[in-house]
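Quick one, tokens below:
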């Protein structure tokens, strides 16, 4: 199913953090993942998951750092993490996958994955406050129901009906899937309502699915740039378009929109994973990670039907 919507990647840029050691963005002894970028106070703000490589048995699976940029490529990073694991058991094992929503009160709301100390379960949590420097962790928003595991990778959107949609990744039967929950308020309670779409046979997203950022332009169908993979975890980035209340898929790519270049190092993995976007119409700046190690920005344009 495709024909109403399509996108093309025009350019790919290396995202550089002032903590990184090399021109390609690699950080010695650490990996960079889940770059969430948004616009605020005349700058582009960033939250990113940082974890050690190799990961030791007592190392957290992630610590979230913050930064800011004037050009969207070079980010000046804070020296102190914005969100750290613990002290509660629910996220003592690591903090991952930040997603930012600017609310009315408190101003900054960060949805993130909390990994238990045993690394056996991930839940969706929120930290909120007047600014990134004054975040306070809130109660758990969503835990895995029976038969599912590892709630993570939140994407938040508002439908035309005013209700909030929370897309999330969950684990089931040795595979990743995308679930959906609804709420009248960003703080919840969130009610799971079933999967918005699923895997497809014999295509690039035949086994795994994970959420990605949503492009919502007035008068146009909202589009999620989602992540999909085969059984051997070769992750690519594609897109799916919904109706105005995210109740029905109206279009979906056949081929992936973005495929990573071959890994430069033998230890690298074949993964491209979308995390956030900035709508600079007509350009879309899509932020993603490659090999679960480095950050990139793709300049994407929506193609008009012939």
């Amino acid at each position: 199913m495709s024909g109403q919507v399509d996108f093309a990647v025009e350019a790919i840029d290396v995202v550089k953090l002032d903590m990184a050691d090399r021109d390609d963005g690699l950080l010695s002894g650490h990996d960079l993942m889940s770059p969430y970028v948004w616009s605020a106070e005349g700058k582009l703000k960033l939250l990113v998951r940082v974890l050690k490589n190799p990961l030791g048995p007592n190392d957290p699976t992630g610590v979230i750092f913050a930064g800011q940029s004037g050009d969207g490529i070079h980010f000046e990073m804070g020296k102190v993490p914005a969100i750290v694991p613990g002290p509660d058991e629910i996220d003592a094992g690591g903090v991952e996958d930040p997603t930012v929503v600017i609310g009315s009160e408190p101003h900054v709301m960060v949805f993130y994955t909390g990994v238990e100390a045993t690394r056996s379960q991930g839940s969706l949590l929120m930290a909120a406050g007047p600014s990134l420097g004054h975040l306070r962790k809130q109660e758990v928003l969503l835990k895995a129901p029976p038969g599912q595991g590892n709630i993570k990778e939140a994407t938040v959107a508002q439908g035309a009906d005013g209700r909030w949609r929370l897309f999330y990744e969950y684990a089931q039967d040795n595979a990743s899937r995308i679930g959906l929950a609804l709420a009248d308020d960003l703080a919840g309670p969130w009610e799971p309502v079933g999967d918005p779409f699923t895997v497809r046979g014999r295509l690039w997203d035949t086994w795994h699915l994970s959420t990605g950022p949503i492009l919502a332009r007035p008068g146009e169908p909202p589009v999620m740039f989602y992540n999909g993979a085969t059984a051997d975890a070769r992750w690519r980035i594609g897109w799916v378009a919904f109706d105005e209340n995210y109740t029905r898929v109206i279009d979906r790519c056949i081929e992936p929109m973005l495929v990573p270049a071959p890994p430069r190092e033998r230890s690298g993995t074949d993964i491209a994973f979308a995390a956030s976007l900035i709508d600079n119409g007509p350009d879309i700046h899509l932020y993603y990670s490659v090999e679960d190690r480095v950050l990139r920005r793709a300049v994407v344009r929506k193609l008009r039907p012939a």
